[in-house]
Amino acid sequence: MFANVVKVSVRRGFPLTTTVTKRFASQEAHSGLKERLVQLIPAKVEQIEKIKKEHGDRILGTCTVSQAYGGVRDVKCLVTETSLLDAQEGIRFRGYSIPEIQQKLPKAQGGSEPLPEGLLWLLLTGEIPTQQQVADLSADLNRRAAVPSHVLSMLKNFPKSLHPMSQLGAATLALQEGSKFAKAYQDGVKKDKYWESTLEDSLDLIAKLPTIAATIYRNTYKDGKVESLDPKLDWSANFARMLGFKNAEFDELLRLYLTIHSDHEGGNVSAHTTHLVGSALSDPYYSFTAGMCGLAGPLHGLANQEVLTWTLELQKKLGHQEVTNEKLAEVVWEGLNAGRVVPGFGHAVLRKTDPRYTCQREFALKHLPNDPLFKLVSQIYQVVPPVLTKQGKTKNPWPNVDAHSGVLLMHYGLTEHSYYTVLFGVSRALGVLSSLVWDRATKHPLERPKSVTTDWIIENIDKDHE
User: Fold this and answer.
1) Residue 448: CB partners within 8 Å, gap ≥ 6?
2) pLDDT for the residue 402
3) Catalytic annotation present for 417
4) 15 by DSSP, 3-state: which?
5) Catalytic, out of 201, 402, 404, 411
6) Which residues, in sequence order, are bridge partners of residue 6?
7) Among positive and negative, which fits the CA dihedral 256, 258, 263, 264?
8) Catalytic residue among 300, 404, 411, 417
């Protein structure tokens, strides 16, 4: 199956060419990534065991009644190594802020945005990779990229009316037939080796996602034809070509998008769901698919679609004309007073402008400063925070990542709003699967928090008052 081989060369630095072996049962990693993890994991395991032994009884935080009923917000009860979200400065990937990774991570030849393959290396190892390490990882992903025929046939037979996220979840679950972790577990692999087949599954899945996502896009909105993977291109550029875009700026946008949407610590729905399902030793295909079902929700990944819809409706209401800040504020107040929200503003943790919003704004200022929709988004950025502050119903009146991404995609011609969450899902794989590898490496147990009933809460409150 998929035995055809394309042989070309690999140059020093970013891969201009590589070798692609189209087999579903792809080889183990050849990028040096596994070897580096073999070196890093024992020290991390030792560190965690020492912490548990010496500080196992230390209290990290508490859970109030309000938090138990309120989504367990701010309850410190998860450990996720790949990223940490600070309310004031935003996300840090392995300790690096978004501006730092934009500066430090390797880039494509002639490009200025970080390559997502570099972020994947960083999330897995905690180290900034070299250009050659990213080149090798990109080549390794290309070797793993072929999607089995039964998955492609299934996608082709789906009705166009089926939501793209439903198609994505079905496709990633159908890949489970080739899980190396499931086979290794069945064969009796030792616990301290769980992470190795989890890494293999994760890299296989990440490699196949652009083809799956592009097939969904082309089947649902276009002619169903998908361009073949080009071994000369990086992960993002190949994705762009398979989607049908041949624009260097769009390649750069996709590199930025896939990097910044990858991880947002472990408590968000998609990350936590992947971790939770994975804690049952479900393989990466089961775990990631579960996370994608969470990402599809309106309160999580679907928000970017809603933001763009709201912005376009606002643009239409304003007659596609520039208006004063006062007029815009008046229209925003009109919606708020009618009980509607301003989507894309506010965040469960952040209390400042989301740095993921900021870097997208900087991209727009560089590449599309005169785009009418971007100019409206910029004006919204000036007007809405003071309005929301005056309204007094939000702790964070500042824009989040969803307030900007749709405008950039629209500018380059990716106008199908219902598809945007699929792009989010492709990116999120980098973070949640990296975390899953470390869950296996550090032997995270089955997650099983204690739940109580409302009657139990009432009884214990009464006891406290006696």
Assistant:
1) none
2) 87
3) no
4) coil
5) 402
6) 20
7) positive
8) 300
pLDDT of residue 28: 55
Q: Give CA–CA dist 436/196, Å, rounded.
A: 11
204 is catalytic: no
Two structure tokens written together for 215: 């097939």
The residue-averaged pLDDT of 374-403 equals 89
Token pair belonging to 433: 């699967």
Question: Tokens 């990290």 identify what position?
Answer: 60
Say what the pTM is: 0.90
* Residue 249 contacts residue 412 (beta carbons within 8 Å): yes
282 exposed, middle or buried (CB, 10 Å; 0-12, 13-18, 19+)?
Answer: buried
Tokens 């502050």 belong to residue: 389
The type of residue at 338 is A
State the sign of the Cα–Cα–Cα–Cα dihedral 126, 132, 134, 138: negative
pLDDT for 345 equals: 87
Give the pLDDT band of residue 347 (cuts 50, 70, 90). Answer: confident
Q: Are 356 and 258 in contact (CB under 8 A)?
A: no
Per-residue pLDDT reduced to its tens digit, 187-234: 999 999 999 999 999 999 999 999 999 999 999 999 999 999 999 999
Helices vs. strands in the chain: H and E counts, helices first: 20, 5
Catalytic pick from 264, 272, 347, 404?
347
pLDDT in the model for residue 466: 65
Cα gap 138→14, rounded to integer Å: 9
Instruction: Look at the block and give the residue holding tokens 């890949």.
Output: 175
DSSP state for residue 302 in the 8-state scheme: T
Provide the 3-class DSSP secondary structure of residue 26.
coil
Closest CA to 92 of 433, 439, 431: 431
Amino acid at 323: V
Our measurement of the distance from residue 260's CA atom to the centroid of its chain's CA atoms, rounded to an integer in Å, reads 8
Q: Calculate the CA dihedral of residues 230, 132, 28, 22 and round it to 10 degrees.
A: 10
Residue 249 has pLDDT above 90, yes or no: yes
| Alpha-carbon distances, residue 162 vs 49, 155, 244, 295, 415 (angstroms) | 47, 10, 21, 16, 18
- Beta carbons of 403 and 344 less than 8 angstroms apart: yes
The yes-or-no answer on residue 347 being catalytic is yes
Note whether 201 and 440 are within 8 A (CB): no
Q: pLDDT digits over 69-125, tens only?
A: 999 988 999 999 999 998 888 899 999 999 999 999 999 999 999 999 999 999 999
